Amino acid sequence: MTDNTQSEQGMTVVVTGASGRTGSRVAQAAEAAGLTVRAASRAQGFDWQDRSTWAATLGGADAAYLAYPTDVGSPDAARDIGLLAREAVELGVRRLVLLSSRGEDRARPTEDGVRESGADWTVVRAAWFAQNFSEGPMVEGLRQSGELVFPGGEVREPFIDVRDIADVVVAVLTAGERYVGQNVEISGARLLTFGEAVAEIAGATGRELTYRAVSPREYGAQLVGFGVPAQEVGFLVELFGELLDGRNSRLSDGVQEILGREPRDFADFAREAAAAGTWKA
Ligand SMILES: NC(=O)c1ccc[n+]([C@@H]2O[C@H](COP(=O)([O-])OP(=O)(O)OC[C@H]3O[C@@H](n4cnc5c(N)ncnc54)[C@H](OP(=O)(O)O)[C@@H]3O)[C@@H](O)[C@H]2O)c1
C-alpha cells in the first residue's frame, strides 16, 4: 500500500447530488473504496440556492464531488460553482472534482470557476448518460406510451453508464496528484443513434418501443405543455440544439485510460434495467 492510498483511505468526500443519478453511484463507489462519504443534497440540508448551508456541508472535508442540478452549463451553475469552490478552498477542502459535459461550450465558465478557485481540481466531461433512458424525463414516455419523443435526430452518441462515471470519479480522487489540473473526457464504447438505443431497450424488454425525432422547438413546446417553466425550456432547447448537432459523435477513451478496462456496454445497461422492470407499462 502506498502512502497516497493510506491517506486517501481516511479521506472525507462531500458528494453533492447524492440522491441523483451520478451522486448516488459516486457515494457507493467511494464507500467501497474506503472513503468516508458526506452526502449533500437538500435532504441533508445542503442547498445550492442557500449559501448559508454550504460551510456546514464542506467544513472538515478533504474533497468534494460537484454535480450541479439540471445543467452544468446554466448561468446559475457558473455563479454557484465558482462561489462554492472558493469557499471550499478557504475551508481547507483542497480536492474538487466537477462533473461537466462533453462539447458543451456554455459549461466552460462553470469549469473555470473550479480551475480558478485555487483547488486541486479535475473536470470530468461525460457523454450523455445511458441512465437518461431509465431515470429521468425520458423514461415516462417509453413506459407509458411506448414512444420516446426527442430532438436527437439521427445523431450518434456514445452513451455512458453512470456507474462508469462514478468509478472514474473515485479513481481520480484516489490517484494522488495524477489527475490534478486535468480535464478528462469519458464516453461509452459504442456510438448509437437515439433510435438504435431505443431498439436495444425494446429488445431487452420484449416490448415494442419506438423513437420519434422532433425538432428542438417542437420538443420545447411539448415541455411547456408538461408545465416546465418557459425559461428552462428556452435553455434546454438551445442546449439540445448544440449538443445534438454531431459535435459529440465520437468516442472518448477516458474510461479505458483511467480504469484500465472497457466502458460498460449499453446492451448490459438495457438488460439490467429491463430486468428491474424499468420500462414496464
Ligand atoms: N444527463 C446527462 O446526460 C449529462 C451528461 C453530462 C453531464 N451532465 C451533468 O450532470 C449534472 C446532474 O447530475 P445528475 O444527473 O447526477 O443529477 P440528478 O440525477 O439530476 O440529481 C440532482 C441531484 O441534485 C440534488 N439537488 C437538486 N436541487 C438541489 C439544490 N437546490 N441544492 C442541493 N441539491 C439539489 C438532488 O437532490 P435533492 O432533491 O435531495 O436536493 C439530486 O441529488 C448536471 O450538471 C448535468 O449538466 C449530465
TrEMBL record:
SUPFAM superfamilies (alphabetical): NAD(P)-binding Rossmann-fold domains
Origin superkingdom: Bacteria
Domain NAD(P)-binding: 17-174
PANTHER family per record: PRESTALK A DIFFERENTIATION PROTEIN A, PTHR43162
Protein's UniProt name: Uncharacterized protein YbjT (DUF2867 family)
